[in-house]
Write a structure and sequence with these properties.
15 helices, globular, about 300 residues
């Protein structure tokens, strides 16, 4: 890379980490301190009406700092990593200031940074059919079908990886090719000409468990039950975002399948399991920088921004 190309590189700051690790609060503080726009990387905050259970920045916070890719689509509309890749990259190119990508949906962050194979845009009808089959027969059943179609690709993923199984079968049905062959012929294109810093706040297990419990109880106090009930009354129980942690358990309570105490306990347990999976993913990322407190985080960011 020439000196001129390095000079033209756009800086990109990514704040990520497990759920309940303080990403929203820290993103507001960072964006305000350094005059940054926030691009959300959250598969749930993209939906309108889903506010309390997603930890979405408040209207007041969004007045302080400009946010993007929040409240973008209706609860019954489809959205995926391909859509996020295109929208986030377009924003990165258009914004005059340095973007702060903030969120915990690693699939979205990966698609933005590393890209997805050219031409594999989502086919809603095909994707819905695959999702229905997974929901009715299980991911292991569809995985066995994938093994018969493309053992090479199937061996790279796990039988419970619904997202990748769906994507692979979608490629097969729409492109009439084995996913492994198609992806080799149409490699993903990484985000070009950017200098990236990926950061997160490090919490020990006890701290994170406590934050998860406190946040769950706070969501209940803030009106998660009423919010969920309102969404169900308008859209029914079957829309995709109602399958997410928090809404799924409260939905079961509203159906009178479980007690409220059981629902709260399940939210806490499932959130802890999600956080564990997210931490496992992030530990494999050699570019991830962890900080023990917000002050050290800010010092590191300042050095990155002025370098």
């Amino acid at each position: 890379m020439t000196t001129t190309e390095k000079f033209k590189q756009k800086k990109l700051l990514i704040l990520t980490g497990p759920t309940c690790s303080g990403k929203t609060e820290n993103s507001i503080r960072i964006a305000k301190e350094f005059n940054l726009d926030v691009i959300a990387a959250d598969s749930m905050q993209i939906y309108k009406k889903f506010n309390i259970g997603t930890g979405k920045p408040s209207k007041h916070q969004r007045k302080i700092v400009r946010h993007h890719l929040i409240d973008l689509i209706e609860p019954n509309e489809s959205f995926n990593a391909w859509d996020y890749m295109n929208l986030s990259r377009d924003l990165i190119n258009k914004l005059n200031n340095i973007p702060l990508i903030a969120g915990g949906t690693q699939l979205y962050i990966s698609s933005m940074l590393n890209g997805l194979s050219d031409g594999v845009s989502s086919n809603k009808e095909v994707r819905d059919q695959i999702s229905m089959e997974i929901n009715s027969k299980g991911s292991h059943y569809v995985y066995e079908q994938l093994k018969k179609i493309d053992i090479e690709f199937a061996n790279k993923i796990k039988p419970n990886d619904k997202s990748r199984i769906t994507r692979a079968m979608e490629i097969y049905y729409t492109k009439k090719q084995k996913p492994s062959v198609y992806l080799k012929q149409n490699p993903a294109k990484a985000l070009a000409n950017v200098k990236i810093k990926k950061i997160g706040i490090r919490l020990n297990k006890d701290e994170l468990d406590l934050y998860i419990k406190k946040r769950t109880l706070r969501m209940i106090d803030d009106g998660l039950i009423e919010e969920t009930n309102s969404i169900i009354s308008e859209y029914g129980f079957e829309i995709k975002p109602l399958k997410s942690i928090g809404y799924k358990e409260i939905g079961s309570y509203l159906k009178k399948e479980i007690t409220l105490d059981d629902a709260i306990r399940k939210v806490i347990i499932n959130t802890r399991r999600l956080a564990k999976r997210q931490i496992t993913w992030l530990r494999k990322d050699s570019k991830m920088e962890w900080y023990d407190n917000s002050d050290l985080l800010l010092k590191s960011i300042k050095k990155f921004l002025i370098s």
